[in-house]
Amino acid sequence: MEKKITLFWFRRDLRLEDNHGLYKALESGYPVLPVFIFDQDILAPLEDQKDARVQFLHQEVLALKKVFEDYGSSFLVRYGRPLSVWQDILEEFPVAAIYANRDYDPYGRSRDKELYQLAQERDIPFRGFKDQVIFDKAEVTKDNGEPYVVFTPYMKRYKQLLQDQDLAPFPSEKGLDHLYQTDPLPVPSLEEMKFTAFPFEYPSREVSDQIIQEYHQKRDTPAIRGTSRLSLHLRFGTISIRGLAQRARRINPKFFNELIWRDFYQAILYHFPHSLDKSFKPEYDHIAWENNETHFAAWCNGKTGYPLVDAGMRELNATGYMHNRVRMVVASFLTKHLLIDWRWGERYFARKLLDYEAASNVGGWQWAAGSGVDAAPYFRIFNPARQVERFDPDLRYVRHWVPEYGTADYPAPIVEHKAARARALERYKAALK
After folding, report:
1. What is the per-residue pLDDT across 360-393, written as a single tens digit (0 to 9) for each?
2. Residue 155's closest CA among 265, 243, 240, 244?
3. Exactly one of 261, 290, 292, 317 is catalytic; which is it?
4. 3-state secondary structure of 33
5. Is 144 a catalytic residue?
6. Is 258 an active-site residue?
7. Is 291 a catalytic residue?
8. Of residues 25 and 1, which shows the higher confidence score?
């Protein structure tokens, strides 16, 4: 009888170092064959065949495959719908167990439930592990077991519970001698998946102690490198959240708090999956949105006549990134000044952001709209002109992305601030009655 193997399914954890699920798989007593699936259900609807995120995933998969082959193993990589792919894999290989790190968004949970049922029918255990967050599921709750829905008490409880062992690494990189020995296996090309390779500069996965140390002083200035820009790597797990949290906890509590926000939003989406596309506070779904498509197009293209909004949208369209302060400004402008449903903006960000992650993105958009957990009062509306004065007073950021600002080529504002603010307050007040 052919010797059985363990399969480790890489998802948003594309690294060999400090990988919880991979570490456990390598300890399973069976040789381990790594698996990755380019999910057709996610990739097929993408509109742009030059998608930097898909290309990033592909290059990271190829890099891991090279390491596995140095150990005499390979990477089993497929393109298709996960359940169908797994049905084929379980027919091809004598599988003892399947290991993976957990996902928390509704799609990931539904997908994993299907595989669990398939594996159970074949008497194959499917084991999941915590890896992309420090605390997950119901680990940080109120005394009565209910989830927190406000960040500050969640953060305080989180810090009370946190122990050094919660940040301890899993030395998965030391167990690669336990990989399954096999000839090299093929990887679907970008072209086979209907994508096109193109030159693109990705942010580094390295960040200096100085940036972390000075984060709270420089994070609101979009013209400088005051943030870590590690969000892409956290999104796809090419760096360890435990390792970064260890550094942040030691160097700068303010930066560490930002990592706690990630766990908080993951917990919210886990406990309240409806918030993915419905207002967390249901009364906010009664807002009479304008949803003016011409205004939405101007916002998408960075042609609203508000320079900080336009600079942010042009940065997003060109690079797949937008500075954190500017994200708040453009989201507030769309939902309050233009009275366009936050879901329109959230979906646009989902298409464009390199670091798109559903829990944090939805949480941020609902915060801007006032409809989410820990939301700002609905009457807090960012004044885009004052935001420029405070955070880009010399216009370095604006002029970089909007070089025609101040000339006849720059469009007039598509709405007037005071009138737009008054309209938003009226609509919100009416909806909340």
Report:
1. 999 999 999 999 997 667 788 999 999 999 999 9
2. 265
3. 261
4. strand
5. no
6. yes
7. no
8. 25
Between CA 273 and CA 278, with CA 274 as vertex, the angle to 5 degrees is 140
Question: Annotated catalytic, 252?
Answer: no
Query: Both tokens of residue 237?
Result: 């797990």
β-bridge partners, 8: 34, 99
Does the domain at 132-166+208-271 match CATH 1.25.40.80? Answer given as yes
Q: Which of 27, 289, 292, 317 is catalytic?
A: 289
C-alpha–C-alpha distance, residues 264 and 266, integer Å: 5
DSSP bridge partners of 39: 80
Residue type, 63: A
86 is catalytic: no
pLDDT band at 1 (very low <50, low <70, confident <90, very high): very low
Choose the catalytic residue: 9, 342, 344, 401: 342
User: Which of these is catalytic: 344, 365, 367, 401?
Assistant: 365
Residue tagged active-site, from 69, 173, 258, 290: 258
Q: Which residue has the tokens 């309209």?
A: 423
User: What's this model's pTM, rounded to 2 decimal places?
Assistant: 0.95
The CATH number assigned to the domain with range 276-432 reads 1.10.579.10
Give the residue extent of every domain in the chain.
Answer: 1-131, 132-166+208-271, 276-432
Is 9 part of the annotated catalytic residue set?
Answer: no
